[in-house]
Amino acid sequence: MHHSPLLTLDAPVPDAVTDALQQVLQVVRRRLGMDVAFIAEFVGDRRVFRWVDAADPVPGLSPGLGDPLDETYCQRIADGRLERVVPDTASDPVARALPITDQLGIGNYLGTPLRLSTGELYGTLCCFSSTPDRTLNGRDLDYLNDVAEIVTVTLSAADANRREHARIRGSLAELERGGGPVVVVQPIVDLTSGKIAGAEALSRFPTGSPLTWFEEAARVGEGTALECSAIRNALAASRQTPGFMSLNLSPTTILAPGTLDLFRDVDLDRIVVELTEQEKLDDLTEVRAALAPLRERGLRVAIDDVGAGYAGLNRVVQLRPDIIKLDIGLVRGIEEDEIRQALSRALISFAQGSGSKVIAEGVETPGELRILRGLGADYGQGWIFSRPCPPDRLTDSVVFDLDPR
């Protein structure tokens, strides 16, 4: 018999699910005229009460408490040794022989197994009263079985969520044992000299996209830990690359305790923190305050995706960045689009007026490069120069052709 450890791992049942199941138990108890209704989970060799609704408190019967499984009605209902409808426990030899009958004062009992969509036995949905009830019959059991179907759908969804959390956490633990994300870098090129001005550190993972890994880590509460792991590796890689190193950080991670300690012994004149767009925050006052001491030590701040909409411009106004990165949507096809050219020209002019540098991101064609140089962008980044590569591939001696054919 397989038991599902639904609530014993890292993914708790959401509050909305807990509230719904609690209400279901109340309806069941009142509809059947019972003193107590509960949902119990089989965890190893124990029965654990997960949700309980009682007319009056019953000692020993509350969420989280449990007892040996082989001493319970629940086990016997699940394996068929006890009838699912017991109108009078005094008249049933199996029920009468169980000490729990007297301990909980059980006069009648109604219960049914709960099986998840995977086929695993979760536990039972049960109810009882302190007095016998000779009217208790198969129709009452049919009603309880119907309710049990609803309960198992809800529990199965929670179980699937638990399994997904366990999978994600397992992948993250394995990644960390292997040293964390692998760092590759993409050069950021000075559009006047063709030399490498710096590089953006990018994370690579054993499978799947980086975005998926960071989103899944955030879903299980490990987003900050994964970002910090990536930052540690990127800072180590920065020792191998010329110019500055641009690191991606979310506002949440910037504000998390301990994150900025990663920069304690780092030469911040060579570091750029690029605020990611993973979260939409209207007020960046705390982020600006948190970064202020590091900026005094030489740290530069970059804003990504400027020109993509109001959010990017709002970040520019609030954070007063040292670098703004033109959104790839502006860069793509700019050589054939006068509107893109006009907007890019305005943003570059704004940056120059506010003392910020401009990185044109996602440059892929000679035409895009030509227009962006003509508009006055300071730096370029994209496949026309290099795809992401190992850090040791970038050296001071590399000079890119700024007029490719």
SS strand fraction:
15-25%
As laid out across the biggest beta sheet, the strand order is 7-8-9-10-11-12-13-14
CATH superfamily of the largest domain: EAL domain
Largest sheet: 8 strands, mixed, barrel
- Stretches where pLDDT falls below 50 for ≥5 residues? 1-10
GO molecular function: cyclic-guanylate-specific phosphodiesterase activity
Pfam families: EAL (PF00563), GAF_2 (PF13185)
Domain EAL: 161-402
InterPro entries: Cyclic-di-GMP_PDE-like, EAL_dom, EAL_sf, GAF, GAF-like_dom_sf
Q: Summary?
A:
Residues 161-402 form the EAL domain. The protein is α/β, with parallel strands linked by helices.
Please give the structural blueprint.
Elements: H1 15-32, E1 36-43, E2 46-54, E3 66-68, H2 73-79, E4 85-86, H3 93-96, H4 99-104, E5 108-115, E6 121-129, H5 138-177, E7 182-190, E8 196-204, H6 210-219, H7 223-237, E9 244-249, H8 251-255, E10 271-275, H9 285-296, E11 300-306, H10 310-319, E12 323-326, H11 328-331, H12 338-354, E13 357-361, H13 366-375, E14 379-381
Parallel strand pairs: 8-9, 9-10, 10-11, 11-12, 12-13, 13-14
Antiparallel strand pairs: 1-2, 1-6, 2-3, 4-5, 5-6, 7-8, 7-14
Helix pairs in contact: 1-5, 6-7
